[in-house]
């Protein structure tokens, strides 16, 4: 029966839903949603049935479907679980307006999440939640966020360049295979006075002479990092030899 529904033509599908909407089973509704001939009108009719939208799987499919009228999709967003919202927020097949509604709901609920939920979410959340989880105080959340492919360099630099980054977070970035090799990240780690000395010093050999000179002259740079720079580039900071002009003198 489900296969038959999936292959109905548009007119046949419209008649089938109209005549049976009050008694459709979950599998039958899902078959309708999978039919490539389904229309916004048919989806709207399904979305208006409280009995049908009582099925969790149907609610998820209606929100995800590109043909579902936006008003219905946005309304149904509020009846989904966190994991559903998380999946929908990163699904590019979901209309942008619906994904924005999903993100807004996720942001409103994020403070109520348990640690495990935050860790799981940080690993694959949308860009909107990335900016929230960057400042989560628990290190496990930050560790998960570092592998999120939607985390951008600019987002990470925004954290590293402030005093809100913890020593533990700075150490994680310095040791991360994806991020620690980026020049801007290396420089930001050195510039942050809270970066542990060993982590800051390990970035110095990879910086340009111009940046090393700038960092050395920065009043916020620690004495330790200055001495490391001087040992690394002694010619930059050694005094020039005195030049004596033998052709001049007090009687010249």
- Our estimate of the beta-strand percent is under 5%
Oligomer: single chain
SSE arrangement, N to C:
HHHHHHHHHHHHHHHHHH
Mean pLDDT, to the nearest integer, reads 92
Distance separating the two termini: 113 Å
Shape: elongated
Helix content: 55-70%
Q: Main sheet?
A: none
- Quick one: how many beta strands? 0
Task: Count the DSSP helices.
Answer: 18
Question: If you compute it from the alpha carbons, what radius of gyration comes out, rounded to the nearest whole angstrom?
Answer: 30 Å
Structural class: mainly alpha
What low-confidence regions span 5 or more consecutive residues with pLDDT below 50? none
SSE map:
Blueprint: H1 2-6, H2 10-20, H3 26-34, H4 40-47, H5 56-64, H6 70-77, H7 82-89, H8 96-109, H9 115-124, H10 127-133, H11 139-145, H12 153-160, H13 167-174, H14 183-191, H15 197-203, H16 209-217, H17 223-232, H18 234-237
Task: Describe what this molecule looks like in 3D.
The protein has 252 residues and is an all-alpha fold. Among the domains are: 1-80, no CATH class; 166-236, no CATH class. The chain is built from 18 helices and no strands. The mean pLDDT is 92.
Brief rundown of the structure:
This protein is mostly helical and 252 residues long. It has helices at 2-6, 10-20, 26-34, 40-47, 56-64, 70-77, 82-89, 96-109, 115-124, 127-133, 139-145, 153-160, 167-174, 183-191, 197-203, 209-217, 223-232, 234-237. Helices cover 60% and strands 0% of the residues.
Index terms:
mainly alpha, 18 helices, 0% strand
């Amino acid at each position: 029966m489900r296969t038959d529904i999936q292959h109905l033509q548009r007119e046949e599908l419209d008649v089938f839903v109209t005549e049976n909407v009050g008694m459709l089973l979950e599998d039958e509704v899902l078959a309708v949603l999978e039919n490539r001939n389904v229309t916004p009108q048919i989806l709207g009719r399904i979305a208006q049935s409280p009995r049908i939208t009582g099925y969790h799987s149907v609610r998820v499919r209606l929100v995800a479907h590109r043909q579902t009228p936006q008003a219905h999709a946005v309304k149904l967003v509020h009846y989904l679980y966190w994991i559903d919202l998380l999946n929908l927020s990163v699904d590019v097949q979901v209309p942008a307006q619906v994904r924005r509604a999903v993100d807004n709901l996720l942001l409103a609920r994020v403070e109520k999440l348990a640690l495990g939920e935050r860790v799981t979410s940080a690993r694959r959340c949308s860009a909107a939640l990335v900016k929230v989880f960057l400042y989560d105080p628990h290190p496990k959340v930050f560790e998960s966020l570092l592998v999120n492919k939607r985390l951008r360099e600019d987002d990470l630099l925004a954290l590293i360049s402030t005093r809100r980054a913890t020593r533990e977070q700075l150490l994680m970035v310095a040791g991360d295979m994806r991020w620690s090799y980026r020049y801007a990240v290396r420089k930001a780690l050195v510039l942050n006075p809270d970066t542990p000395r060993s982590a800051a010093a390990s970035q110095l050999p990879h910086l340009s002479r111009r940046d090393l000179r700038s960092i050395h002259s920065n009043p916020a740079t620690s004495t330790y990092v200055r001495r490391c720079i001087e040992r690394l580039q002694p010619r930059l900071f050694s005094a020039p030899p005195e030049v004596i002009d033998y052709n001049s003198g007090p009687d010249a």
